[in-house]
Design goal:
The chain is of the alpha/beta class and about 450 residues long. It has three domains: about 140 residues, Alpha-D-Glucose-1,6-Bisphosphate, Chain A, domain 3; about 200 residues, Alpha-D-Glucose-1,6-Bisphosphate, Chain A, domain 3; about 90 residues, TATA-Binding Protein (2-Layer Sandwich). About 40% of the residues lie in helices and about 25% in strands. The chain is built from 15 helices and 21 strands. The strands form four sheets. The chain has a seven-stranded mixed beta sheet, sandwiched between helices. A five-stranded mixed beta sheet has the order 9-8-10-11-12, sandwiched between helices. Strand 11 and strand 12 form a beta hairpin. Helix 3 packs across helix 5. The chain is globular, with a radius of gyration of 22 Å. About 55% of the residues are buried. It binds magnesium ion. The site of magnesium ion (MG) has 6 residues, from loops.
Length: about 450
């Protein structure tokens, strides 16, 4: 069957992949699936945010749902509010880390976690078969606009319950935040001020063109943040994506880290007082997570790439922590969803409790060479390419939880997987030595190229 949902909700360019009338029908499909009820609706700063939010709202109301439109909010703050403030479900209008022309729709169940693949399929079926349960004019849903202030306030207070507020306040940290002109600027600087930190921001104004940088935080696009950290003498810097659920960190010397490294720091810290706990992470993560967890008698459970898989697996196993290499940390005691502001709070807590600088803490963790590459491939070929790659790697030490992951030794591996949101394959690789990493990456590129050629030939 045709798909609407990718790895993280529905993604599209308005007027190209989907039109506004399609969005209304998606709203009707979601409303039909939930059989009415009370929905919390929010969005990030994208230029199509208003039109998409209103179209979704109309579709939902046509099926009898009451829509509480909170306007601009981060995904994690909306998710927290859905769970804790009496909503039946939530809808977030965001394309997260995608470029400004994209928008997207994330659907949250009443537990504040994105619906799983099974429920996505049901929404898709209602949408494609147009089996909408529309109500008559007397019963259309209400539309209530509400201020995001109250929701963000409650959320920030909840985040603060998990950290040593007094100790952090005493330390008077300086932190530079790069919320990439989006909704992260509504939560993280606010948290920092509550914690008596000096909060400096770059790319802090709200702007749906994302003039500051691409909305996806990466090692190669956070130089401005790194310079700001150094020039202001800050304790660290934090960069979010477009909807505030990811956080990448920069230490006081300007070194930028991938999320599996900062995630490993959090795992190390949390498991030191909660030994033996389970950590959930996708197959794309560094072996650092497992090394650190094992040090404390903990166990790592691997999932497919995608926050839904991590969240749902955490809930199934009652695991307190989830980590993604892209900067997603899921802190179960607060909410098993990735949350850039909660992650920042945990880093502050670690700095306050240890009294050490971030660079020092990071230097104590194992170091590996990592590579992350994008390789273009038309969407319609992806499935075939994965099949061919599986065939090519049968004789190797490979696993197929998501895409194809080949192990060269215990600490050297490559993952080749199709992106769920873009017409590309992602290659992730890791090794102890740089030379070995380069060999692995070149081999992966060669295999992928060969597989794409073969898929094209087979048509
Ligand atoms: Mg995001």
């Amino acid at each position: 069957m045709k798909r609407l949902f990718g790895t993280n909700g529905i993604r599209f360019i308005l007027g190209e992949e989907l039109n506004v009338d399609d969005i209304v029908r998606i709203g009707m499909a979601i409303g039909t699936f939930f059989k009415g009820g009370k929905c919390l609706l929010g969005r990030d700063v994208r230029k199509t945010g208003d039109i998409v939010a209103r179209a979704i709202a109309s579709g939902l109301m046509a099926t009898g749902c009451d829509v509480w439109d909170v306007g601009l909010i981060t995904t994690p703050a909306l998710q927290f509010s859905v769970k804790n403030m009496g909503f039946d479900f939530g809808v977030m209008i965001t394309a997260s880390h995608n470029p400004p022309e994209y928008n997207g729709i994330k659907v949250m169940a009443n537990d504040g976690v994105e619906i799983d693949r099974e429920r996505e399929k049901k929404v898709e079926e209602i949408y494609f078969k147009q089996k909408f349960s529309l109500v008559n004019w007397r019963n259309v849903g209400k539309y209530i606009t509400c201020s995001n202030e109250e929701y963000i306030d409650t959320y920030i207070r909840a985040v603060m319950r998990h950290i040593d507020v007094d100790e952090i306040r005493r330390r008077k940290f300086t932190v530079v935040v790069d919320p990439i002109n989006s909704v992260g600027s509504l939560t993280t600087p606010r948290l920092l001020r509550e914690l008596n930190c000096k909060a400096l921001t770059i790319n802090g104004n709200l702007d749906g063109d994302f003039p500051g940088r691409e909305p996806e935080p990466r090692l190669d696009n956070l130089e401005a943040l790194a310079s700001a950290v150094i020039s202001s003498g800050a304790d660290f810097g934090v960069a979010h994506d477009g909807d505030g659920d990811r956080a990448l960190f920069v230490d006081e010397r300007g070194t930028i880290y991938w999320g599996d490294k900062s995630g490993a720091l959090i795992v190390d810290y949390y498991l030191s007082t909660h030994p033996g706990e389970v950590v959930v992470t996708p197959v794309s993560s560094s072996v650092i997570i497992e090394e650190v967890a094992k040090k404390h008698g903990g166990k790592v459970v691997y999932t497919k790439v995608g926050s839904i898989y991590v969240s749902r697996k955490m809930m199934e196993l009652n695991a307190p922590l989830g980590v993604e290499e892209n900067g997603g940390v899921f802190f179960g005691p607060h909410h098993p969803v990735r949350d850039g502001t909660m992650t920042t709070a945990l880093i502050l807590d670690i700095l306050a409790q240890t009294g050490e600088q971030l660079s020092k803490l990071m230097s104590k963790l194992p170091t590996y060479h990592q590579a992350k590459l994008r390789y273009p491939c038309p969407n319609e070929l992806k499935e075939k390419v994965v099949e061919i790659l599986r065939d090519m790697t049968k004789e190797l030490s490979a696993e197929y939880i998501d895409g194809v992951k080949i192990w060269y030794d215990k600490k050297a591996w490559v993952l080749i997987r199709p992106s769920g949101t873009e017409p590309i394959f992602r290659i992730y690789a890791e090794a102890e030595e740089e030379a070995k990493l380069n060999t692995i990456v070149n081999e992966a590129k060669r295999m992928l190229e060969e597989a794409i050629d073969e898929a094209k030939r087979k048509g």
